[in-house]
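Example 5.3 — Helix-turn-helix domain-containing protein
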Amino acid sequence: MTAETSQTLDRGLRVLKLLADTDHGLTVTELSHRLGVNRTVVYRLLATLEQHALVRRDLGGRARVGLGVLRLGRQVHPLVREAAMPALRSLAEDIGATAHLTLVDGAEALAVAVVEPSWTDYHVAYRAGFRHPLERGAAGKAILSARQQRAGDPGYTLTHGELEAGACGAAAPLLGVTGVEGSVGVVMLAEVVPERVGTRVMDAAREVAEALR
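Solution (predicted structure tokens):
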């Protein structure tokens, strides 16, 4: 540190960098140890960063990078969507269902990119900007499953009628993308999700994750 720099700002930026380097977040104690400061300082840093949506804390108290980091650069969301679009378009056309990329925003799942199939007679209407609780719907539950299973591949999640009557969902989490929690999925009008859909969704999630690295 020099006379021209701010110690508090430096610590806040170090918090963001530490959180960006982990997929599972850090506790106040872990951040305290890594920064070499007491827990009170960490609490204040996190509270300030949370006010600006740069950090969020999950129900278990672990701090993670917030979507406010993405909002700092107006082009980030368009770039995320652009990176995901080829895989989403291929998924929608292959399955014949609406495909989406969903990211975590606090306690909610936020659809940031949506592609509808071009050849079907009907499909579920789903729009970018749609939000729902993480505990409901395949997209959010896939993200939660990745949090709970910290080693290995959590596979995919299936739901039926949780967000819209008669609609099924299948989603797989994004894995290995530092600082980003999300999932790729499809939503369709069906009584039963065909077996191949789950595998296809997992493949698409891997493609999107690779594009975002």
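Remark. Residues 76-95 form the longest helix (20 residues).
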